[in-house]
User: Fold this.
Amino acid sequence: MINELNQLRANALEQLAPIGDDRALEQWRITFLGRKGALAALMEKLGTLPKEERAAAGKLANETKAALEAAFQAKLGAVKQRALSESLESEPLDVTLPGRPRPRGRLHPATRNLREIYRIWRDMGFQVFLSREVESDEMNFQLLNIPPHHPARDNWSTFYIAGSEQGVLLRTHTSPGQIRAMRALSANGTQPLRVILPGMCYRYEQVSARYEIQFNQVEGLAVGRHVTFADLKGTLTEFARRMFGERPVRFYADHFPFTEPSAQMDVQCIICDGAGCPLCKFTGFLEILGAGMVHPQVLRNGGYDPDVWSGFAFGLGPERIAMLKHSIEDIRYFWGNDLRFLEQF
Ligand code: DAH
Assistant:
């Protein structure tokens, strides 16, 4: 038995030496180390040996197995290494070749601008409330104190949905969201709220550098038990500071049917710092938003008792703000999808 094991080992190693590819190597493994291979066959005979010989033979069998396995692993490594260097030589790879550039996508400038506005309002405690783009005449106008045939309707050139007998329209501003937000958020009892309502609005305009038939607005609404005009001024001034940096703002009286009193807010011109230039039409200030104290009837229409609750609201045009910030001279660039414009952001 001892002889047979030594013989097997010598034989196996002799056959292993010239092997150079993994097919032959696998064949060798099966022949000598496989479950039905030569070594296994010898080990099976161990049990038939007389007791005195069994221990020594068993030990040698194990050593033989370990030696053959080690030799196999070493050869396997050598064979793989050789295959690798051969393939490197036969298929040379030029690592100095420049890669293929992958064009990177990016967010639309209007989206980026909107997100910045969301972030500022979020930091000031306002949540986003999404309202619908297709509205009823009642929501878009009547519940905001603009009855049918009211001359104020001239301010909102409206797209009506065909066949709806003028009852359904594309919202002309985000203000109807005020009613929807108040009704939705006070469904289980009136409570204070602070929301912004962003989204697309539509107007039947002659398209020009200043007017588009579609544009975003961001509406804001804060309702509470003691909300005052001072809160309106303080909050909007802080928004302007975060959006445009440290520069003067001014408020002056305006009129909107759904707020009383109503105001406009201007921010000092970001091009000329108030000196006067074509952007601010030599006034030194840029008009940023409309705002006001929510009209008592509008509060009532939203389910809030105006004897207990008060609030302020505002509406701003994000594309207009982006135009001011980035000196974009034509609003049509926003939805024209001209990559030469979009890639600048
Ligand atoms: N909805 C107005 C517009 O489209 C903007 C506006 C003005 C909204 C005053 C308001 C507000 O909430 O208080 O021109």
